[in-house]
Write a structure and sequence with these properties.
Elements (H helix, E strand, L loop, with lengths): L1 H13 L5 E5 L7 H9 L3 E5 L2 H11 L3 E5 L7 H10 L8 E6 L6 H7 L3 E5 L3 H92 L5 H27 L8 H16 L2 E6 L8 H22 L3 E8 L3 E8 L6 H6 L3 H12 L3 E6 L5 E8 L17
Helix pairs in contact: 1-6, 3-4, 6-7, 8-9, 9-11
Length: about 400
């Protein structure tokens, strides 16, 4: 009873507009008290005297509830209920049967046709009002739930649309990042070639002219010392230009990835004083220039992080062959760090390495912990159209 009362009270909250009830009875005068009570409670009441009129009026008026007499001449209440439930326009309208006490056993048959409740004749006003109130509340809650579900579906659809836009936007940003990185590498290559071909040749010619001038000067000439200083200055400038060129784009990359890594390790050791070795456990793979450059930049960034943060005394760059391609590892004996914690900070170096690896279809893994050193691994597949194929005669099948 408490549940019925709670639902009935909810009806008054949920039902914002006057509800309508269709009463179907061949002798509506017997229900005058019910009609008056419904109207007194602000409900709209429609009447139908037979089955045909009941079905038609239900379709037109769309009442919130139907109070349906079972025993009527012609089409009885069960057949009317069956037709109402077979029609999409009226199937959701709750039907309460009215029957005499002797027909209680037949009510189960009415439930099979779609009825939701019943009252016995002679109708007791309080009982029928309570049942009508409960089912109006249930119907109102039902439509409220449908509306909430509709809004939720719209919100889910909108959220999926936004998520899809975000994914597309992220992919576009990645593509843009890849395009910009390729453009930067190409610009580095162009600048390096221009410096090497133009400035390098000019400095070499200047060095030759200074050398010829030195040969013409006597050892006692005061100019000899100045010219000697000029030659040393030219040689230092040539060395500086060579270093700048190599850092823009190592000339060793023209001879393969391994040559470039060996140059990088040697240069790293000279600059930092940290011992750096390149260990080859596989033959050199055949890579496109873009792939070789990306792998080289990952190793270069890894060594930069070692120099800045690791406090290491030793670094190994090793390459091993895998079933899909090759793995390259940069390991140090430094202080280590927490990769999860680093990911929450502005670790642009790690992000850069991950993105470079992603752009060539490779995967990057970082294994480290405080006090245990660090191993950065990049796994590069060789099944891409942009790198060496396994059926390439230059690819080692060991």
């Amino acid at each position: 009873m408490q549940a019925v009362t709670a639902i009935a009270e909810t009806a008054e909250v949920v039902q914002t507009a006057p509800a309508s009830v269709l009463i179907v009875d061949d002798a509506p005068a017997n229900l005058s008290g019910v009609v008056e009570s419904l109207v007194a409670r602000g409900l709209r009441v429609f009447l139908a005297l037979d089955g045909t009129e009941a079905v038609q009026r239900a379709r037109r008026a769309q009442p919130e509830l139907i109070l349906l007499n079972v025993n009527m001449p012609g089409m009885d209440g069960f057949e009317i209920c069956r037709q109402l439930k077979a029609d999409a326009r009226t199937r959701d309208i709750p039907v309460i049967f009215m029957t005499v006490a002797d027909d209680i056993e037949r009510i189960s048959e009415g439930f099979e046709f779609g009825g939701v409740d019943y009252v016995t004749k002679p109708v007791r006003i309080d009982e029928v009002m309570a049942r009508i109130k409960v089912h109006l509340a249930i119907r109102a809650l039902h439509w409220t739930l449908i509306e909430k579900n509709r809004r939720l579906e719209n919100e889910v659809t909108e959220r999926k649309r936004i998520e899809q836009q975000l994914l597309e936007s992220r992919e576009q940003l990645r593509q843009l990042g890849g395009h910009l990185e390729a453009a930067r590498e190409e610009e580095r290559r162009r600048i390096a070639l221009e410096i090497h071909d133009e400035l390098g040749q000019l400095l070499t010619a200047l060095k030759m002219n200074v050398s010829l001038l030195m040969m013409r000067l006597t050892s006692s000439s005061d100019l000899l010392k100045k010219v000697t200083e000029m030659r040393e200055l030219v040689e230092r400038t040539i060395l500086m230009v060579r270093n700048v060129t190599n850092h823009l784009r190592p000339a060793a990359l023209n001879f393969g990835l391994v040559s470039a890594l060996e140059w990088l390790a040697e240069d790293f050791g000279k600059r930092t004083g940290i011992a750096c070795k390149v260990l080859m456990n596989a033959s050199e793979p055949v890579l496109s220039d873009a792939h070789a450059t990306a792998v080289f930049r990952v190793v270069q960034e890894s060594l930069t992080n070692v120099a800045r943060h690791a406090y290491a005394t030793r670094v190994h760059v090793s390459m091993t062959k895998s079933d899909a391609g090759f793995d390259l590892h940069v390991s140090d004996n430094g202080c280590g760090f927490d990769p999860a914690g680093a990911g929450k900070r502005d670790s642009y170096g790690l992000l850069s390495m991950s993105e470079r690896a992603r752009l060539i279809g490779a995967s990057l893994q970082i294994d480290s912990a405080p006090g245990t050193g660090t191993v950065i691994s990049i796994s590069v597949p060789l099944n891409s159209a942009h790198c060496g194929k396994k059926d390439d005669p230059n690819f080692d099948r060991r």
